[in-house]
């Protein structure tokens, strides 16, 4: 069965590794992610954005994740990514999600705390874990787009207060990463991760994990990042593999001929991330 993030996040925080959230965009993503995790014997999180949910359909999403959990025997959480309302979170929980994120980062701190608390209260009663977010993460992901000027770092005192008042199971804070690939290199504020992580018992979440140099990922984990989200790198690997096949052969028509290399490319990406995050053999 699918599990809450509390099945593995406390251990990640205590032993300084991170569990990957790999976003599910379709069946091939789901298969590639679980195959990589099986090779590495690693727990992981399927992240599903509201856009991906619309694309796949909630029934297919849950059925695919449950099939992956059954086939692999691994601790897998099915997690709503950047949930925008209490209602969406509840809809996902009723459908079988084991974890949800409520992203109230665009509200005032007071309002974000108030709304996140409501989600935590309802989710906890059903054994479902909750991620909150503070500060705004730049870049583009599905319907959420934040330009550089409006991306703002989380303030450690506010993050600590947010945790104390909401009791979330992990906390995403804006520390300088962005959704999508980077033009240059990200300027990650490790001191913010460190300050917040030292003051709360749950891990900090690093969003926008794609394109972050390995050394920065290692430093972020040492500072207290216990969950790291990756989506774009898999999308790029998938599409590049498909493009390569189509460019070479204009007569190919069987989708399996390009989806197989696409899936294999994603297995490689995910396996590398799992090793980098240190979650191998932690299942
Ligand atoms: O919530 C999802 C992640 O933050 C994905 O970010 O596409 O930059 O890897 P990414
Ligand atoms: Zn994100």
Describe, in plain words, how this protein is organized in 3D:
- Its cofactor is Zn(2+).
- Pfam families: F_bP_aldolase.
- This protein is α/β, with parallel strands linked by helices and 283 residues long.
- Helices cover 50% and strands 18% of the residues.
- It has 11 helices and 11 strands.
- It has helices at 9-15, 27-40, 50-56, 58-72, 86-95, 109-125, 156-166, 190-199, 214-223, 232-248, 255-277, and strands at 19-23, 44-49, 76-83, 99-102, 129-134, 138-141, 144-146, 170-173, 178-179, 204-206, 225-230.
- β6 and β7 form a beta hairpin.
- The model has no long low-confidence stretch (mean pLDDT 96).
- It binds glyceraldehyde-3-phosphate and zinc ion (ZN).
- Residues 23, 47, 81-82, 141, 179-180, 207-210, 229-232 line the site of glyceraldehyde-3-phosphate (G3H).
- Residues 82, 137, 141, 179, 207, 229 line the site of zinc ion.
Query: How much of the sequence is in beta strands?
Result: 15-25%
CATH topology: TIM Barrel
Give the name of the CATH superfamily.
Aldolase class I
Largest sheet: 8 strands, parallel, barrel
Structural class: alpha/beta
Enzyme class: lyase
Keywords: Lyase, Metal-binding, Zinc
Organism: Paenibacillus gansuensis
InterPro entries: Aldolase_TIM, Class_II_FBP_aldolase, FBA_II, Fruc_bis_ald_class-2
Provide a concise account of the structure shown.
The chain is built from 11 helices and 11 strands. With 283 residues, the protein is α/β, with parallel strands linked by helices.
């Amino acid at each position: 069965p699918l599990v809450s993030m509390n099945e593995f996040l406390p251990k990640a925080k205590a032993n300084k590794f991170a569990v990957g959230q790999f976003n599910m965009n379709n069946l091939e993503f789901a298969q590639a992610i679980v195959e990589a995790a099986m090779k590495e014997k690693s727990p992981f999180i399927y992240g599903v954005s509201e856009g991906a949910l619309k694309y796949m359909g909630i029934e297919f999403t849950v059925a695919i994740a449950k099939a992956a959990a059954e086939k692999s025997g691994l601790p897998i959480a099915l997690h709503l990514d950047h949930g925008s309302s209490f209602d969406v979170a509840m809809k996902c929980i009723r459908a079988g999600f084991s974890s949800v994120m409520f992203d109230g980062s665009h509200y005032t701190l007071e309002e974000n705390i108030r709304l996140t608390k409501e989600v935590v209260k309802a989710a906890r009663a059903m054994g479902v874990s909750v991620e909150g977010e503070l500060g705004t993460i730049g870049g583009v992901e599905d319907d959420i787009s934040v330009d550089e000027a409006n991306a703002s770092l989380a303030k450690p005192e506010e993050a600590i207060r947010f945790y104390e008042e909401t009791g979330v199971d992990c906390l995403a804070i804006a520390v300088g990463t962005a959704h999508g690939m980077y033009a240059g290199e990200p300027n990650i504020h490790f001191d913010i991760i460190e300050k917040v992580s030292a003051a709360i018992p749950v891990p900090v979440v690093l969003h926008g994990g794609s394109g972050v140099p390995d050394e920065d990922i290692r430093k972020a984990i040492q500072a207290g990042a216990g969950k790291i989200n990756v989506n774009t790198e898999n999308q790029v690997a998938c599409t590049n593999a498909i493009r390569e096949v189509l460019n070479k052969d204009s007569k190919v028509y069987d989708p399996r001929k390009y989806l197989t290399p696409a899936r294999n490319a994603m297995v490689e990406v995910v396996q590398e991330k799992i090793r980098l995050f240190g979650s191998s053999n932690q299942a």
